[in-house]
Amino acid sequence: MNKLFDLSGRVAVVTGGNRGLGKEIALGLASAGANVVVIARKIEEEVLSDLEKHGVKAMGIDFDVLNFHQYDELLEQITEEMGKVDILVNNAGVQKRHNAVDFPKEDWDFVMDVNSSATFYLCQTFGKHMLENGYGKIVNLASLLSFQGGFRVPAYAASKGAVMQYTKALSNEWAQKGVNVNAVAPGYMNTEMNTALIEDEVRSRQILERIPAGRWGMGTDMQGAIIFLASAASDYVHGITIPVDGGWLGR
Ligand SMILES: NC(=O)c1ccc[n+]([C@@H]2O[C@H](COP(=O)([O-])OP(=O)(O)OC[C@H]3O[C@@H](n4cnc5c(N)ncnc54)[C@H](O)[C@@H]3O)[C@@H](O)[C@H]2O)c1
Questions:
Q1: Which residues have CB under 8 Å from 53's CB, separation 6+?
Q2: pLDDT band at 1, cuts 50/70/90?
Q3: pLDDT tens by residue, 116-133
Q4: DSSP 3-state of 11
Q5: Contact, 49 vs 18, CB < 8 A?
Q6: pLDDT at position 76, please?
Q7: Residue 104 phi/psi, 5° resolution?
C-alpha cells in the first residue's frame, strides 16, 4: 500500500461501527492496516471476526454514547487494551422525522444529544488524549443536511450543521498540535437510517433522479474519504467537510 494511506500500527475507534456506514468504515480502516475498536450499544461478534480477516486486532465495546459521564472510562478501557488511540470516527447517529410544526422536544433533545453533543464530547475526551500524544485524526460524520435544511428533519439538520461548525472550531485549536479534525458528509446512502425514505416510492424516485451518479450511495463508498482523512495523506487538511454524495451538492 502507498505509505500515504497506510494505517498499519494505528488504533482506530469507530462509534456505531456495528452496521450501516459505520461497519463499512471500520472495515475500510482495517483494510488499510489499522487495529479497530468498534463501539456500539450491543456489539455483533460477526463484525469483529470480519475485521480480523484483515489481519488486524479488533476490539468491541458495548457502550451507549449517551453515557457522557463514562467517556473517560471508555478511553481508559481502550488504551489499556490497545495502548493508544490515533483515529476517532464519530459515526453513531440517529434520525427522527416529524413535521416541524409538531416536532416533540423529547425527539429534538435525543437527536441533538446523540448527533451533536456526544460527538463533540467524544472529540473532547479522545482529542485530549491525542493532544498529549501529539498525534491524532478525528473524522466526524456530518451530512448533506449540514449544508441543506431537508424536510421533516429539523433536529437532524441542526445537529449536523453543528457538527460541521465545531469540526472547524476544533481544528483551529488543534491543527498546530498534530491533531487533524475533519468531517465527511454522506449523501443519500442505502442504510437502515433511510428505510422510511427508501420505502416511500415518490420520495425515493425524486431523490434518485437528483443524484448525478444515478444511484444511492453504499457503505463502501465512504471508505476512500475516511482512509484519506485518517492517514498521512491528509496531514495538511484541517476543518473541512468532504461530501461523499454522488454529486448531489454540485447539482
Ligand atoms: N445513511 C445516510 O444516508 C446518511 C447520510 C448522511 C449522514 N449519515 C450519518 O452517518 C452515520 C451513520 O449512519 P447510518 O446511515 O449508517 O445509520 P444506521 O442507523 O444504520 O447506523 C447508525 C449507527 O449508530 C449507532 N448508534 C445510534 N445511537 C447510538 C448510541 N446512543 N450509542 C452508540 N451507538 C449508537 C447505531 O447502533 C448504528 O450502529 C450517522 O451519523 C448518520 O447521521 C448517514
A1: none
A2: confident
A3: 999 999 999 999 999 999
A4: strand
A5: no
A6: 98
A7: -75, 140
Residues at CB less than 6 angstroms from ligand 1: 15-16, 18-22, 40-41, 64-66, 91-94, 114, 141, 143, 186, 188-189, 191-194
* Spatial contact of 11 and 59, defined as CB atoms under 8 Å apart: no
Please name the residue whose Cα sits nearest to atom 17 of ligand 1.
193
The question of whether 71 is a catalytic residue gets the answer: no
Read off the pLDDT band of 45 (50, 70, 90). very high
Residue 3 Cα, ligand 1 centroid: separation in angstroms? Answer: 30
% the chain with pLDDT above 90: 97
Domains and CATH numbers, the chain: 3-188+222-242 (3.40.50.720)
Q: How far is the CA of 136 from the centre of ligand 1 (A)?
A: 23
Tell the residue nearest (CA) to atom 7 of ligand 1: 143
Question: 247: left (phi > 0), else alpha (psi -120 to 50), else beta?
Answer: left
Task: Choose which residue among 191, 192, 210, 226 to substitute to test ligand 1 binding: the one with the highest number of ligand atoms within 8 A of its C-beta.
Answer: 191
What b/e string do you get for 75-101 counting C-beta neighbours within 10 Å, with b at 16 or more?
Answer: beebeeebeebbbbbbbbbbbbeeeee
CA of 33 to the centre of ligand 1 (A): 24
Per-residue cell: 205:
424516485
What residue type is 66 in one-letter code?
Answer: L
- Average pLDDT of the segment spanning 148-174: 98
Residue of 71, 156, 166, 188 marked catalytic? 156
The alpha carbon of 20 and the centre of ligand 1 are apart by a number of angstroms equal to 7
